[in-house]
Fold this protein.
Amino acid sequence: TTTELKEDLKDFYTIATAKDTPIIWLLTDSQIVDDRFLIYINALLSSGWISDLFARDELDALLLSLRNEMKAYGKNADDFEEQKAYLIQKFRRNFKVVLTFSPV
């Protein structure tokens, strides 16, 4: 379901950013059971960000987990836009998508 997909994507963001762990998401065409999945997949592939994925408190908690790392790299950890840009950059570095489609 779309709800399950969104929860999985939240987990991917946490693992790839707060835990700094590389992820390869292998997704087959048979797993895309709802056309709305494609909206999320497209957002991931095009920008690395899904605007309605996190509630504000969830996003704040994720950004908070990156504050010390941002400061260590000389980033402004108090600026929301810079925090979000850093989150997306780190996510895109650690998260890869492999789409497989049947030729039939």
Summary: Helices lie at 2-17, 36-46, 56-64, 67-72, 80-94. The domain at 2-100 is CATH 3.40.50.300 (Rossmann fold). The first helix runs from residue 2 to 17.
